[in-house]
């Protein structure tokens, strides 16, 4: 009877070892996945902050442009040629800003 139980005990011990190894592999996979998600989260947070800043810059520029444009319009009603040059200068500046924004990042 002792000999019959011995193979069962060996099999049971072998299963326990395999189960322990499988659990360790599973924990390692889970840890790797968690690390990957944390890195992705950090990257997305950085990207989000950059986009928020770009949006704020755009809003500032848009409000500054809204202040400048009425000035140009009011000068056009006063007297002609100079307002056109103001408008074309403003248009040129806006185009330059757009080009700078659309240029690829270094």
From TrEMBL:
Task: Name the InterPro entries for this protein.
Answer: bZIP, BZIP46-like, bZIP_sf
Q: Which CDD domains match?
A: bZIP_plant_BZIP46 (cd14707)
Q: Coiled-coil segments, which residues?
A: 27-61
Domain BZIP positions: 9-61
Does the record carry Transcription regulation as a key word?
A: yes
State a single Pfam family of this protein.
bZIP_1
Under which name does UniProt file this protein? BZIP domain-containing protein
Q: Which organism is it from?
A: Aegilops tauschii subsp. strangulata
